[in-house]
Amino acid sequence: MVSRQPSCTGSDSGSESESLDSKSGSPEKHDGSTRRRMAANARERKRMQGLNTAFDRLRKVVPQWGQDKQLSKYETLQMALSYIMALSRILTDAQKRKAPHRQWLDLQFDCVQPENYQCFSTISYSSPDEHEYMHSSFPYQYDGLQVPT
DNA sequence: TAGGCCATCTGGTCCT
DNA sequence: AGGACCAGATGGCCTA
User: Fold this and answer.
1) Distance A22 CA to C7 C1' (A)
2) A48: nearest nucleotide, CA–C1' criterion
3) What are the DSSP calls for chain A, one per residue?
């Protein structure tokens, strides 16, 4: 896992209080517009933090390639899309296959669990069709994938 | 060093 | 008027 240090967090550098203080001298001298701008900046930071929290929660439930590098926001969205489509496809196919294929269905669900996602590399398929099916279910492939064999 | 990714600031727009 | 949302600009950090 790569731990990224925010280049400028709200309290250390680049915050609205510092940048605006440099213009007006001190907080007491902030006029109305400056105070509104500072408040807007604070709201925007809080909003983006909420957005990032949502991304973190999404990363936790989405298949993660490897353990050392977290998915970027873009990659997270792409993976979430593929993940949802894969689950949806499994449900659709399960309805077609009916009861006799319960074991097959269990296998599919096991494979799309984030913690078991690497099983794509070790799973043995009973037919080329199943192999093609599972890989087509996850069209988004992280370039940096290195799955242990 | 270049490129990717990210946080923050900022001004604009829309909504309540 | 004020808040939420968005997109562009800017600059820092990290990796190949």
Assistant:
1) 26
2) B7
3) ---PPPSS-TTTSS-HHHHHHHHHSSGGG--HHHHHHHHHHHHHHHHHHHHHHHHHHHHHHS--SSSSSPPPHHHHHHHHHHHHHHHHHHHHHHHHH-GGGHHHHHHHHHHTSGGGGGGGGT---SSHHHHHHHHHH-----TT-----
Q: pLDDT under 70 in chain A at which residues?
A: 1-30, 65-68, 98-105, 109, 111-149
CB A79 within 7 Å, strand B: no
Per-residue pLDDT of A121-140, as tens digits, reads: 333 334 444 444 444 555 55
Distance between the alpha carbon (CA) of A49 and the C1' atom of B12, Å = 22
Which pTM value belongs to this model? Answer: 0.65
Query: Which A residues 2-21 have CB within 7 Å of strand B?
Result: 4, 6-10, 14-17, 19-20
